[in-house]
Write a structure and sequence with these properties.
The complex is a heterodimer of chains A (about 400) and B (about 210).
Chain A: H1 6-12, E1 18-22, H2 30-43, E2 47-51, H3 81-90, E3 95-101, H4 140-156, E4 162-166, H5 179-192, E5 197-203, H6 216-221, E6 227-231, E7 253-259, H7 276-287, E8 292-295, H8 297-300, H9 304-314, E9 327-333, E10 337-342, E11 345-350, H10 361-368, E12 376-380, E13 388-392
Parallel strand pairs in A: 1-2, 1-8, 2-3, 3-4, 4-5, 5-6, 6-7, 7-8
Antiparallel strand pairs in A: 9-10, 10-11, 12-13
Helix pairs in contact in A: 2-3, 4-5, 7-9
Chain B: E1 3-7, E2 23-26, E3 29-34, E4 44-48, E5 55-64, E6 67-75, E7 87-92, E8 102-108, E9 113-120, E10 126-129, E11 133-135, E12 140-147, E13 152-158, E14 161-168, E15 175-182, E16 196-204
Antiparallel strand pairs in B: 1-16, 2-5, 3-4, 4-16, 5-15, 6-12, 6-16, 7-8, 7-15, 8-9, 9-10, 9-11, 12-13, 13-14
Classes of the chains: A alpha/beta (about 400), B mainly beta (about 210).
């Protein structure tokens, strides 16, 4: 278990924790690292999830372990960027976690991805079913290789506060992808880095198209992980701890996901819409979720609205419960139009006007435009490409 | 009893974390909260299906792997359904809309209504169907009890009287969603006339009796 540092205890007592994801391109120079730390200090961000092993860059960059990933590294003050970032952040009480995707590569799906030595890309190591990207968790070779890489990384980067396991789940269906095998992998990670905080990224619901085998209650109740990043980013993933109801939440610190990614049709919020971050942080407050993780840095940091929303969240100004939108009726004429009855009035829009969100001005005014009253209305395309209007608001309070 | 949800639509809101759906799935037709659809209180759910579309919604639960018991009041409200066709009024969602653990379908033979229930095995396909149980064109309490096992089972009560139990081996089946409405299936194509009503939809995960069984 991680040994708590006094500086962190003092800084974070009884305050919300805000975690921010960092892509590799956000912090590969000294100036960027210094600016990020200053920004965290100015805006109350307590944790950074900085990508640890990555080669999705030109030139290839390996932030972490250079033995297993034979790529050129960018150095700052003679050290890898993540170590520099962690060292400097620590002096200000900001925790840096190594964002580690559990692949057999340093990254996934890019031409610059580097295979972790000595693995080969085959079905034994990599679950290729359903186009999967994760380990074959039933096989010892990829498990051992990844865990050794994490262990070496921690040894080489003593200032890094923790390791955050992403893609710690299955997205294929080969034999052996089971709850037990994924859980034992998490357990071995725990054992490999006993002096660091271990985090895991978990889906906020399980009703996706494949079993993910994230037995969170086991991970939490056995204290394999210290913190949890709940990825409530997507409109199709309601913001809720569905898979945590059997877990002892007193044993884990969890961060609910908040996305600000631009130009992505399935992400819940978009920082180009000023009220979105404020709205989702308000939901966090209403639902009693004490902490938030925000994806990601590059898209969000420069907006004034983002900084104001963070400030209000941290200072308790988003606590008020707001009225709930009274949608009483939905009518859909396939491929033509749909209408909503809200507060006694009917608002109709054409299918052609719908992209990811409702675009009809009158409807936006009455649904999206009222801060805190917006249900998530999406033109939803499930895997079979049939068309639904799907309206999600499952976790809002009355 | 561990109540999963208790949906009454009494807040006059289709989507509401306590009183209404969590999610609406409407690819056609009309789904609405209506006073005419109230069995008790002031409001109930009115679903007007459209051929080839889905007109319903659901509640999300935790990952259910043992027991699931649910009940709701239902009034066919004189809806007409072509002979030999049916509309699905209850089903779970298991990972995606093409797979299921159980369902319940409504039929009409020109003079009386009927429902039957289906149960999936570990293939996530419905492999066992019950007989068709008839009921009158009025409000009735339907109660369902799904259990996982070898064999697992699915039981139906109408107005407190057990109609039958069907079984299948479903030891690996799990789900975390349940929906009510009309045409809750992948490719519904039934031309109906009229609307149906639902009210007070309750579920638990320990199998406790809900209605006056």
């Amino acid at each position: 278990m991680v040994k708590k540092n006094h500086i962190y205890k003092k800084r974070y007592a009884n305050k919300p924790l805000i975690s921010m994801w960092l892509q590799y391109y956000a912090y590969d120079t000294k100036a960027e690292c210094d600016a990020i730390i200053q920004y965290c200090k100015d805006n109350g961000i307590t944790d950074l999830d900085a990508i640890a092993v990555n080669s999705d860059a030109t030139p290839k960059v390996c932030m972490g372990n250079s033995t297993l990933c034979n790529v050129t590294s960018t150095n700052i003050d003679g050290m890898k960027p993540i170590r520099y970032l962690a060292r400097e952040a620590k002096t200000h009480g900001i925790r840096v976690h190594a964002w580690w995707c559990i692949y057999i590569w340093t990254w996934w799906g890019t031409s610059n991805a580097v295979l972790l030595s000595p693995l080969t890309d085959n079905a034994t190591n990599h679950d290729t079913s359903n186009g999967g990207s994760t380990l074959n968790f039933s096989q010892s070779s990829p498990r051992t290789t990844v865990i050794n890489a994490i262990k070496d990384f921690a040894k080489e980067n003593p200032e890094v506060y923790g390791v955050n396991l992403d893609y710690i789940r299955t997205d294929g269906t080969v034999t052996g992808q089971t709850d037990a095998n994924v859980t034992s992998f998490v357990s071995e990670c725990r054992t490999a880095i006993p002096d660091r905080e271990l985090s895991a990224c978990t889906l906020s619901v399980l009703n996706i198209t494949y079993p993910v085998h994230q037995d969170m209650p086991s991970w939490i109740n056995n204290r394999y992980i210290d913190t949890c990043r709940v990825m409530g980013y997507y409109t199709s993933y309601p913001l809720k701890l569905y898979h945590m109801d059997q877990a002892d939440l007193s044993k884990v610190r969890f961060f609910m996901g908040t996305a600000t990614e631009q130009n992505s049709s399935d992400w819940a919020f978009n920082c180009t819409r000023p009220s979105d971050l404020r709205t989702t942080l308000r939901q966090h407050s209403e639902l009693g979720y004490p902490n938030a993780c925000i994806f990601d840095w590059v898209d969000a940091m420069d907006t004034v609205e983002f900084q104001e929303a963070l400030s209000d969240y941290l200072h308790g100004k988003l606590q008020a419960v707001v009225p709930y939108p009274a949608i009483t009726k939905i009518t859909v004429t396939p491929a033509t139009s749909f209408s909503l009855d809200i507060g006694g009035s009917t608002y109709t829009t054409l299918y052609s006007a719908i992209t990811d969100h409702i675009t009809t001005a009158s409807l936006k005014t009455h649904v999206e435009g009222i801060e805190g009253q917006r249900p998530w209305i999406h033109y939803y395309r499930p895997e079979n490409n049939s068309t639904y209007v799907r309206i999600l608001a499952g976790d809002w309070l009355p | 009893m561990t109540t999963l949800f208790n949906v009454t639509f009494e807040n006059n809101m289709l989507i509401h974390p306590i009183s209404g759906y969590d999610n609406c799935y409407v690819s056609g037709g009309t789904l609405e909260v209506a006073a005419a659809a109230a069995y008790e209180g002031s409001y109930g759910l009115k679903s007007t299906p459209l051929a080839g579309t889905v007109t319903g919604g659901g509640k999300v639960t935790h990952d259910l792997t043992g027991k699931f018991r649910t009940a709701f009041y239902f009034d066919p409200n004189s809806i007409t359904i072509p002979s030999g066709s049916y509309i699905m009024i209850l089903r779970n969602f298991h990972y995606d809309l093409s797979q299921q653990a159980f369902n319940c379908t409504l039929t009409w033979n020109g003079s009386s209504y009927g429902i039957d229930i289906g149960l999936a095995d570990n293939t996530l396909n419905i492999v066992t169907w019950s007989s068709v149980y008839t009921f009158t064109d009025a409000w009735h309490l339907f109660e369902f009890y799904w259990q996982r096992g070898s064999p697992g089972s699915f039981q139906l009560w109408i107005d407190g009287t057990s109609q039958g139990t069907i079984t299948a081996t479903n030891t690996s089946v799990r789900f975390n969603n349940c929906g009510i409405g009309c045409n809750l299936r992948s490719s519904p194509s039934v031309s109906t006339t009229g609307s149906v009503y639902f009210d007070r939809w309750i579920a638990n995960d320990d199998g406790s009796q809900i209605g006056g069984v």
